[in-house]
Amino acid sequence: MQRSANAPSRRGFLFASAGLVGAGAFTLSDLSRACGKHPGANAPSEGRIAGIDEPGEPMEIEGTVYAPDGTTPAADVVLYAYHTGIDGLYRPAGQSGPPRLRAWFKTDARGRYAYRTIRPAAYPEGKWAAHVHTQLWSATVPAQWGSTLLFAGDPLLTADERRESAALGRFANIRPLTRGPGGVWRGVHDIRLEPTGDHFEDNTRHGLQG
Questions:
Q1: In whole angstroms, what is the distance from residue 131 CA to residue 120 CA?
Q2: pTM for the whole thing?
Q3: Which residue in 64, 101, 120, 162 has the most C-beta neighbors within 10 A?
Q4: Terminal Cα-to-Cα distance of the chain (whole angstroms)
Q5: Residue 29 clears pLDDT 60, i.e. is over it
C-alpha cells in the first residue's frame, strides 16, 4: 500500500554511532549518509513542491531549522519534504516509485527555508490527518526524520498527536494556518534537529537517493 511506503510520522531506530561530538558536530555512519544522486546539495532555500498548475489550495510554509540545542540556527542543512495530492495519494494508484509531490531545499545562513505547494489531503482511508513529511541531513548532520507537519483544526488529529506536539514546546508540529490574499494558506514550521540519525527503510529513502 502507498501508506506503508511513506512513513506517517518520525520513525526508525536511532544510530548509536551518530552521537553528538564537540560543539554541535556529528559523526556519521554510512547508513545515515545520503548518496551522491540527491539534488539537495545545490538546492535553494526557497522553492516549490507543487507546480502552479497543481490542483488544490495554495499553501506557503516557512521555518527555521535549529541545532539540537534548540537555539543555534542550522545552516546548509538539506530539508526534503513530500506530501499527498488532493486525492490523498503520493502517486497515481497502481504506480510505484517516489512521491509525486516532493522537493529538496537547503537552509540559508540563518537556518531558514520556505516552500510553496498545495495543502495536502488526508489518506483516502480517512484514518490519518493530512500532513507533510520532512527528512533532514547535511555533511555534519546524520540523516533523520524531521517533525511531521500537521495542521491545527484537522478533525483527524489524534489525542496522541496533540500530546506529542505539545511536548515539543516551541517546536510543536501541529501548526496553525492563516489564509491570506489569493486564498493562500500560510504557516510556520520550525524544526529542531536530533543529535542522532534514523533508520530509513528502502521505501523511505527516496529523498536520500534522489
A1: 7
A2: 0.85
A3: 120
A4: 21
A5: no
